[in-house]
UniProtKB/TrEMBL annotation:
Signal peptide: none annotated. It comes from the Bacteria. InterPro entries: WecG_TagA_CpsF. The lineage of its organism: Bacteria, Bacillati, Bacillota, Bacilli, Bacillales. NCBIfam families: wecG_tagA_cpsF. GO terms for molecular function: hexosyltransferase activity. This is WecB/TagA/CpsF family glycosyltransferase.
Length: 249
């Protein structure tokens, strides 16, 4: 894939946050764009990709994969094909909300628990009053409710569909329902971004970001959600990534 660097089989985009936002904006402004599936991948997802054949197919067919982690940036430099900066789901969401506020884009928010989803959308309404909320729904639903959600998305035709159901589940859900999501212009997963916007989780302080220690801040401060792996268990993928992508190269 042109303009990418291959790290452990994942073709990461070398676009900056600004360039990524501009590329998505151009796609949204097209008269009849196809569904654009963007994946924000961190070292944990990159390691999962090694043995998850379903995720391998999803990655191969994605339109763009951004580097959501300092480890990806370091590995790219180790390969001599440097990525200039991380492009996280949270930062990209905020940029698109700013752009959407100026251009009147519509968003649909799917995921997290009901209270957090509602509070996040209320906060977005206050901060970005010109953004159109096509719809919202929490991430806990049965098959019957899922059919209604998909029908609602088809009916409202949002410019951007935001999924907050955890990785890689969000991207697997997107891939499974690509046919039903054909009225959407851009879709991507944002991890716990709605939790931050809703005020459920404090944003990472600037000093932690400057030191590229956002992952450690989340590890120490974000509560474990019932039914999900603990962050300590999930971060066990980091040593594997460091060895395979950075030390071994």
């Amino acid at each position: 894939m042109e303009g990418t660097v291959n790290i452990l089989g994942v073709p990461f985009s070398k676009l900056t946050l600004d360039e990524t936002t501009q590329q998505l904006a151009r796609h949204i402004q097209k008269e009849q764009p196809h569904l654009y599936h963007l994946i924000t991948a961190n070292p944990e997802i990159t390691i999962t990709h090694q043995t998850d054949t379903a995720l391998q197919t999803i990655v191969r067919e994605a339109d763009l994969i951004t580097p959501d982690g300092i480890g990806i940036v370091i590995a790219s430099k180790r390969k001599g094909q440097p990525i200039s900066e991380r492009v996280t789901g949270y930062d990209l969401l905020l940029r698109l909300l700013e752009q959407g506020n100026a251009l009147g884009w519509s968003f649909f928010f799917l995921g997290t628990d009901e209270e957090t989803n509602r509070k996040a959308v209320e906060a977005i309404n206050r901060r970005y009053p010109n953004v159109k909320i096509a719809g919202r729904h929490n991430g806990f639903f049965n098959s019957e409710e899922e059919a209604g959600i998909l029908e609602n998305i088809q009916h409202t035709k949002p410019d951007i569909l935001i999924i907050a159901m955890g990785a890689p589940y969000s991207d697997k859900w997107i891939y499974k329902h690509k046919q039903e999501l054909n009225q959407v212009k851009v879709v991507f997963g944002v991890g716990g971004s709605l939790d931050v916007i809703a005020g459920k989780v404090n944003p990472t302080p600037r000093v932690w970001k400057t030191l590229n220690l956002e992952w450690l801040h989340r590890l120490l401060t974000v509560p474990v959600v019932k039914g999900q792996k603990s962050r300590w268990r999930r971060q066990s993928a980091l040593p594997k990534f460091v060895y395979r992508a950075i030390i071994k190269g």
